[in-house]
Design brief:
Elements: E1 2-6, E2 27-28, E3 31-32, H1 33-41, E4 47-53, H2 57-67, E5 70-74, H3 85-96, E6 101-105, E7 108-110, H4 114-119, E8 125-131, H5 135-138, E9 142-147, E10 150-156, E11 165-173, H6 175-178, H7 181-186, H8 193-202, E12 207-212, E13 216-218, H9 222-232, E14 237-238, E15 242-243, E16 248-249, E17 253-255, E18 260-262, E19 266-267, E20 271-273, E21 278-280, E22 283-285, E23 287-289, E24 294-296, E25 299-301, E26 304-305, E27 310-312, E28 315-317, E29 320-321, E30 326-328
Parallel strand pairs: 1-4, 1-6, 4-5, 8-12, 14-17, 15-18, 16-19, 17-20, 18-21, 19-22, 20-23, 21-24, 22-25, 23-26, 24-27, 25-28, 26-29, 27-30
Antiparallel strand pairs: 2-3, 6-11, 7-13, 8-11, 9-10
Domain Nucleotidyl transferase: 2-234
Family: Belongs to the transferase hexapeptide repeat family.
Domain Mannose-1-phosphate guanyltransferase C-terminal: 249-313
Length: 331
Amino acid sequence: MKVVIMAGGYATRLWPITKSKPKPLLPVGERLIIDYILDKVKELDLDVYVSTNRFFARQFEEWAKERGIELIIEDTLTEEEKLGTMGALRYIAEKLGSDDYLVIAGDNIFSFSLRDFLNRYEGKTIIAVYDVGDLKLAKRYGVVLLEGDRVIDFEEKPATPKSTLVSTGLYIFPEDVMELLEDYLREGNRDSPGYFLQWLLKRGVEIKAYKFDDYWYDIGSADSYIEAMKTLMKESYIEEIQISPYAKIIPPVVIKRGAKILGRSIIGPYVYIGEDCVIENSDISDSIIFRGTIIRNSTIWRSIIDERCEIRNLELKKSLVGGHAKIQRGD
C-alpha cells in the first residue's frame, strides 16, 4: 500500500491568503497543516508521497526536502488547468504503479489514528466519516447513509441531506478500484472523490465506513482555519521578540522571531503572529497575522491578515486581508 497526501488544489475559498501560498503549508499554531497529517502517516511505516502542482512546487520542495518526502508534481499552473483529485490520482497511479492507495486530503486535520483506520481495511474501499451534527453544514460535503459499517447511499453536496454523517477526505482504494479510474474519467464524470464514490455504489462496488468522533477540520474557510487553530494550539510558543513592559500576552499564542509587541497591546488568546510583525497599542485575539505586517491602534478579532500589510486605527472582525494591503482610518 502507498500513502498519497493530495495537495494540488488552489484553495480559492481562502483567497487572497492562498493566492501565493499553498493551503497545506499554512501554519496552525507552531506547525503546518500538512505536518499534522504527516505525523499520523508516520504511524504506518508505508511509502508516502505528496501530490501538488507546478505553481506551488518550489514551496513544497523546501518542505519535502527537510522531511524526506517524495513529491509528485502535476504540470498545472492555474485552477482552470488542474487535474482534479481523481485525475491527479490516476496520474499518480501511472507513475507509481498498481497498488492499494491510502488517499488523504492535504487540508484535513483529524483526531483518529491512521493505524486504527488501516486495521479496519479488509480489501474493500473504506472511507472515514464524521457526524457534523447539522443538516445545513452537511450540505457542504458528501453525505453518507450507513447500514452497520456499510455505505448504502452517498450524495455529494446535496440540497436536502439525508443525514449529518459526511465523508472527510480520507479513503483507502484497493487496487481493483484504482483500475476503474480510467473508465470513470473517460465517461466524463465530475473529477472529485464524492462523485467517484457515488459512481462506485451504482456499479455495485462495496464501500465500508470508518466512523470517528472528537474533531475533524476541513480547512476550507477562515472560520474552519481559526477553529482548527483554537483546538490544536495548546501551549504558547514565543521566539526571540521585542515586547513592551506594558503589553499583555494571554496564552496560548505563537509569536515568531523578530516580532515587536509595543505599547499597551494585548495579544491572545489564540493568536499567531508571524516573523518581523510590528503590533503597537492593539488588541488581537482569535486571529492569524502573517509575517512583516504592521498593526497600530487597532482591534483584530477572528481575522486572517496576510503578509506585509499595514493596518492602522481600525476595528476588524471576521476579515480576510490580502498581502501588501494598506488600510487605515484617519488619525
